[in-house]
Each structure stands twice: as structure tokens, then as C-alpha cells.
Amino acid sequence: MERLESYVAGEWTPGRGPAHVLVNPATEEPLAETSTEGIDLAAAVAFARAEGGPSLRALTFAERGELLRAMSRAAHAQRDALLEVAVRNGGNTRGDAKFDVDGAIGTLAYYADLGAQLGDARLLADGDGVQLGRSPRFFGQHVLVPRPGVAVHINAFNFPAWGLAEKAACALLAGMPVITKPATSTALVAFRLMKIFTERAPLPRGALSFLAGPPGDLLSHLGGEDVVAFTGSSATGATLRLVPNLARESVRINVEADSLNGAVLGPDVAPGSETYAMFLRDVVRDMTQKGGQKCTAIRRIFVPAAVLATVQGDLVERLRDARVGDPAQDGVTVGPLTTAEQLRGVRAGIERIAAGATVAIGGTGPFEKIGAPEGKGYFVPPTLLVAADPDGAPAAHEHEVFGPVATLFPYDAGARHAVALLRRGRGSLVCSVYSDDRGFAAEVLLGAAPYHGRVLLGSERIADQAPGPGTVLPQTIHGGPGRAGGGEELGGLRGLHLYAQRTAVQGSRPILEALLGTRADPRPAAAKP
To answer: 175, 231, 294, 523: which sits with the fewest CB atoms below 10 Å from its CB?
Structure first.
């Protein structure tokens, strides 16, 4: 069985002691084991600060971008091998694996292009300068400079490739070294990706470190110059904020957590229309892609009461076509959940919501599985629940079931009611509104936007272009308020802000412009994906 190692202080290092076992979630076959016991994490942090940070900050944005481009190309060259590992360790179908691996490759390429557009600069002007005195001579300018510490990235199990790449791309381009820690259960994909980077696209020593397993005392070595970016449960995110030295030193923490994302079908949308087809397609995709294990997946579906039965029938018809089983088998469209713990949690969540709703398809009973050994695997069928009382059903508005599960609700066809229901999620990563009525869409947008990091306005004009609310694009931000963690990642240049210190510089305008290179517009043109 393969033994995973960590990459710290510029070299691959094995852990000692009892190992954590990684399995194929479709067969429960052991694949690899890993441990971080005995690894000197204080030295790893110190090495990243002392070696990786200065090396990155000595480079221009364009030069850092070329490092990202080399990483993207190296991963692309090994794409098929990464997909194969993702199928075995992540329980992904090949299409689901592409969603993760290609997302990693594309995000690295996007930020490489952004670095090229930023050119030879080593800092960014933040907005326009401002006159501070009676004459233009006394001038002020906000700038963004790299923080001198280390960025610690703690990633979720569902996107081991993309999660590593999207966080690292922003931090490295900003000029900050990274220690990345994938979730242990799916660390094999991240481990292989890191091997590719070290062998085929080497970065400056200390620029990118990798911890394959539990974080140990890693966080205890961080201080005020460092950054923590976490993706996972809201409970763990809240615990992070209470770690004594992180709180005492005001360590910058970015959290992306639970999310009860909603989809609203407008009252103007007729069954059979392009917008209606887009709505159905997005809901079914989010329920089945990666076994519903996406933080951006649609969990709550709001439709006018008059079409509830029609929508229910259309969704059930499409979900009935899903084929659950070992993703290595032909014809399988929905793979297993990632761990036995996830399976227990999803089953319990279905039963909790079903106490105030009815199960239209799926549930916790027996079902057919393709190619899986008898009694093995962490499988749940796509499950649609229907709650007749949208203003009741508290569990569906409070508890995220992280699997192929969503709840369908009727609403009174008014924008105000739709907004009220969306708000019951208490802060989400994304919501989607499907309507060709601009007035309805605008009213829902204005009411829902303060509670969401992203809003997708679906209509017939983009029905053939938009990839759906479940797809995170690097050009726009990823994150959300409230229970979604209050964090913000990606968003083009905004992704660099987490890793930069904003400083106000005051002085003579000509001197500032000469020092900062801000006479010309410092903002790059829109980068291409």
C-alpha cells in the first residue's frame, strides 16, 4: 500500500507512527496510508517564511505568473493520471473528476494570465490616488504589498485538486508562500498533484509546502503576519477563530463553510421554455455531480405553488435516470460519498428533513447499485424531498445535507416571499433566480444579494452558456456571509487581497508616482480564463 509523504522545508518527509488509511469509497479497498507524526511543523513554517517568502517577493507579478503557468501545464500533461486517481480515491465519475482536475488547471492558467497583465510590478495600487492638501502636491495612495508571513491552506475533501490550486494560485501570485493541507480522506489526488509540481514545475524552495495528513500543532506557530484560508464545516471554522494565538495575534482567517444554496423559479417561466429547461438542468446537475458533495450545490428549490406538481414530476423523471454505483464502471453517473462518516451524516440528514417533508425519490431505503461489492461502498441515491409548508420545514432551512439531496418548496409566486425563503439560509455561497421578467429578477436580486456571495440570474439569453450556479469561476468571487463563513476568495485581482497588506502612502505626488509607478492606470485589463 502506498505511503504518502509531506513536502516541507524543501524535501519529501514521511510521518511516523499510526497511519490514516485512504480507501476507495466504492469498494472500501485500502489505497494508501499517511501520517504527519514526527514532522517538525515549526521548522516548516519558519522555512517557508525565511526561504519561500523572500524568493517570491523578489519576483515580479509576471515572473510569478510564469510559475503558475508552468504548474498548469505540468498538471495538464498528467491529466489522465490525475483523473484515474480521482475516480479511485474520490468516488468520482470521470466527468466529476474532470470538474475538479480541469478546474485546477484552468484556475492556475487564469492567474498566470493575470500575472502577465500585471507585468513588472511588485505591488498594486489600490484604487485611485487622492489629493490631501490645498494643492495637488500633498497626495495619498493606497497600495497592496505582500504579507511577510506564510499562508496556511486547509482544504475540503470534495475538491482535492481545485481546492489546492485555487488557493495557491492567489497566494503565490500575491507573493506569499503556502503550506497546503488537503483533507486526509482524499489526499491521494492532492499528493499526486504536488508530486507533479515538484518534479515538473519546481517553485522556489519554500514557496509551496504540502502536509499529507492531520495538521498537528501547525496553527500554533502562526502569527500576525500569516494567513489561514479554510474550507470545511462551519463548526470547524468557528473553532479556528478561537485558537488562542490566532485570536491573540489577529491572524487573518478566511472561512468558506456550510451553505443552504437556493434556486428560485420565477412565476413567468412556463414549463417547456428554455429558461425552465435551464432550471431543471441546473438542479439535477447540482444534485448528482460529485454525488452532491459541492459547497455550491442547490439544496433548496423554490417554485410557484401552481407548478409544484409539474416541477416535482419533471425532476423525479430526470433523477430516475441517474445510475448509482462504482464510478469505474461504464454507465455510472453518480458515485459514492467519500467516507463512511459522510454516509452516516447524509442518511441522518435525510431522515431529519423527512420528518417535515415527503420523499419524492430516493431516501434511505434499498436501491440498485452498479458494480459495487455486496454490502460495500458509501452510496446514497439522488433524493428529492418535498415540503408542502415552505414557512415551516425548519430542518430543510437549517441543516445542510452534503450529498445528492435537495428539498422542493412551493412559494406564493411573489418576489418578497422568495427572498424571505432564501434568507432563511442565514447566508449562502450562491443562489440562482430563473426568470425572464426583469422586474421580478431585480426585486429578488436586491433582497437576496446581502445574504449571498454570488447570484446567478438565469434566463433564456444565457441558457446555452452559463455552467450553472454550482460552478465556481475564477473571475468572480467565491464565498458568502453568515453561515457560509464570511469569507471571499478568487474574483480576479480580489483574490490577491487576502494575502496583501493595504497601506496608505502619503507624500509628494510626483515622488509617489515615481516610486509606485501609478501615473498610468495600474489596473490590468480583464484577464481571459
So the answer is: 523
